[in-house]
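Quick start: read one record
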Amino acid sequence: MRFRIVLTIIAFSFVFRGIAQSFEKPLYKNPNAPAENRVKDLLGRMTLAEKIGQLCCPLGWEMYTKAGEKHVQPSAKFIEQMDIMPVGAFWATLRADPWTKKTLKTGLNPELAAHTLNGLQKYAVENTRLGIPIFFAEECVHGHMAIGTTVFPTGIGLASTWNRELIKEVGSVIGLEARLQGAHIGYGPVLDVAREPRWSRMEETFGEDPVLSGILGSAFVKGMQGGDIADGKHVYSTLKHFAAYGIPVGGHNGQKALVGTRELFSDYLLPFKMAIDSGAQTIMTSYNSIDGIPCTSNRFLLTDVLRNQWHFSGFVFSDLGSIEGIATTHRVASDIKNAAALAIKAGVDMDLGGNAFGKHLEKAVKEGSVSMADIDSAVCRVLRLKFKMGLFENPYVNPDLAKNQVRNIRHKTLAREVAKQSIILLKNNGILPLSKNLKSISVIGPNADNVYNQLGDYTAPQDTNQVITVLKGIKRAVSPTTIVRYAKGCAIRDTAQSNIDEAVKMAKMSDVVVLVVGGSSARDFKTEYLDTGAAAVSNKKEETIPDMESGEGYDRCTLTLLGDQEKLINALAEIGKPLIIVYIAGRPLNMNNASEKADALLTAWYPGEEGGTAVGDVLFGDYNPAGRLPVSVPRSIGQLPVNYSLGKQADYVEGTSSPLYAFGYGLSYTGFEYSDLSIDRQDDKVQLSCKVTNTGSFDGDEVVQLYVRDNVSSVTTPPIQLKDFQRIFIKKGETEAITFTLTADDLSLYNQQMMRTVEPGEFTVMIGTASNDIRLKGIFFYK
């Protein structure tokens, strides 16, 4: 009897202990527990459907309903989604543009955006079984693509600064503005090495060189992610697009890349490797294929290289619809279910769009084509970053901070500084800088006073009062007594809008003419869009042809100025007035005619919201330009590819093989002399030093560029290859010492066995102000 009583007591003790444990906080909700333990605990509690949900990232802008100016609530679609299958992330919830149909009226300002994401997050935390917070991923290539945020120059303009510390600061501001509104992941930077200017997305990249892209991309990542991802001021950076997306056949967006393995690793993967070494935690696959294998199902790239060789510990996004593209575009899977299986087994962790994984993975698991281990590995990577960011403890943001800090004066000042540093002076016969006391000046051209043409792709609708066009910038820069006249002259593409006679008449009345031509990535509500968000080029005869000739989906077969822009250049050149031409564009358009006929020629790319102010600063001498080309400017598409690292090529029958303007090129209002090259070999490092003297009459920046050639190697290597650079301010008449350090990694190559190694031998170092303007040369031996 006593034995039975003891057994009964023991049994009841287990029951009561089980009841007590059921009321204890789960381990995954304990902030003091190790992250890996929390991940393991949460994973063990999840159903298959809940696991798959964490791998889905549907479109986000449909997830809220706006009623009036200040009231926003979760949409019925959001509630249905979270009740059926809570998802791991939403993409572009705050995005506003013609594709999403979100305008200044129907979209969200920063304060309201923060309230909205808090509301969605609250539902996920309080109304789903496990309360797993949502990742909100946003487009952040040159500013958070949301209403009321700061718009910086596009990637090609950021690269033109050749200033890593400045780009780090840009990344920090973009990350802060996104995080304050409730986002956690920022898509950017774009690290595609772009050597095909006909391609529609060159504007998003850092240009044609892997080292420049890698250094600036790493700086962007460090700024965006900061030192403590849980501090409420930073977001995870997503590297785009993996891999070799910037060299599509024929310039067609998403077309296959024709590239050998050695060149793939040496050039096109290098920027991603550098950024991952700098701490990047998410990466996105590209739409294209390499050697017959779609990048979104390429296990060699996504697992063997990315994880096993590079030790990448974060997670991999697909690009929007790229999993479906494995079956539909590339036809290497029989259906979407098999495409989803190929993608997750290759190493894709999160499906941007969500339909491929959300609708098909569960069946693939039950059929055995995907293992539970495949699912669990991907889920763990996603959850790990959520715990690392502290989302389970701090899922919400403060709307007041978003209201007061997004696009504040400091951020706008930075946008102006970046725009100034990005402007490249290509030609100057001495006319610049202009006097602020001119009697009159004519500002002419389709991009002289067009807000959206100045901002580039992946830009939200703008309060036009926040954007300074070139016309506004010039008006601000000149004396109050200077007469400033304006005429559009023509449109970018549409010839029905041309009024060149009016522009010529106005120019004749003025002392100086500033002509602003180029291209446009400005989307409008008449343009049709693909499911991926890329614009669909239309051949329909419309009353008015839109300006858009660049931006995702707008590939070109020529690089000529469209519409009547060349006619406008010719007409204005004929009147004999001093002519300054400014290009605002997303790719290196043909400049042959402009270079010949202009007294001064500049490119500002898409310079962002403060671009007009920056152009005015440069034209009137308030800022001495020092931007450098991150991409070669061809004379003809027949020269392509014309990237500088190919070296000197034989001339064509019709003319030279050299570009019109070379990589690294850019003028200043002052001059610089280089001297005293010193080479000091120290163990496995080589220290280089030289002196640079400002010999002109203006203070200014110089971009000192270091190139290297491996004189004899077991495999073909570039005859000239950028290895490092410094942008340095030097006062007139003064000299600064410059020091570079080359490491073994800088001198290494992929040998015939595809092993990364340094081969002993002779190397030539070249220091100069452009790839075609080398001022100092030296030789050293590496043993």
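The mean pLDDT is 95.
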